[in-house]
Amino acid sequence: MDELEILKKDWKKKENSFNQITEKEIYGMLHKRSSSIVKWIFIISVCEFLLWIAASLLMRNNEKVNKFYDYDKFHVMTILEFINYGILIYFIIKFYKNYRKINTIQPIKSLIKNVLDTRKTVQTYIKIIILYTIITTIIMFFVQFNFDPEILKIYHEVERKGNETMFIILSLILTLIFIGIFALFIWLFYKLIYGILLKRLYNNYEELKKLEV
């Protein structure tokens, strides 16, 4: 049993004259926990940003990745990479602002609003990352199928035999399956990272609503 539950049990046992003091203690505990959760959301987002940069630098030393960038004549992947950084930086700033707001002593109503805003921000972030991942994967397949010399060689061979329609259909099916599995993996990854924190934040929101009544 955590400290908040102990305080709540004590609150019920005490006389009405002491309720107001205990209510303030419970609010202080909820405020402190909410602030801590949002701080961790901010820290994780910064770590994620640094991880993406490290992964990008490491991939640049990979032969297959370098080949992919070589036949990406329109530098689509480089543009998408910068868009990814832009998304991460934007949400890091949002998470930091949310932390600053929640970290400030404020009325219960304002704290409830800020907790809700933080949850919505994280949920929006996860949705945008998943959407970005799907779009990026589709573009990567498009670039590879249109510019990769090895893929083009296979396609021309299939075309010569008159099986290009079947080749395209199978390629699309395999692509969609890969995108679905990859998107599911990303969703589970972010649910694991942020899901626990969001659940705790929601629990705090429920407790704050009780105090507001």
Features:
single chain, 213 residues, mainly alpha, elongated, transmembrane helix, Beta-carotene 15,15'-monooxygenase, transmembrane, membrane
What does this structure look like?
The radius of gyration is 25 Å and the shape is elongated. By secondary structure, the protein is an all-alpha fold. It has one domain (18-212). Helices cover 89% and strands 0% of the residues. The protein starts with a helix and ends with a helix. The protein has helices spanning 3-13, 19-59, 63-71, 76-103, 108-147, 149-160, 164-212. The protein is built from seven helices and no strands.
Class computed from helices, strands and strand pairing: mainly alpha
Major sheet: size, sense and barrel closure? Answer: none
Radius of gyration using CA atoms only? 25 Å
Distance between the amino and carboxyl termini: 24 Å
The coarse silhouette is elongated
- Helix segment count? 7
In total, the number of domains comes to 1
Which percent range describes the beta-strand content?
under 5%
Average pLDDT number: 81
| Secondary structure: helix percent | over 70%
Number of strands: 0
SSE string, helices as H and strands as E? HHHHHHH
Low-confidence stretches: none
How does the SSE layout of this entry go?
Blueprint: H1 3-13, H2 19-59, H3 63-71, H4 76-103, H5 108-147, H6 149-160, H7 164-212
Summarize the entry for a quick read.
This is Beta-carotene 15,15'-monooxygenase. The chain is an all-alpha fold and 213 residues long. The protein is built from seven helices and no strands.
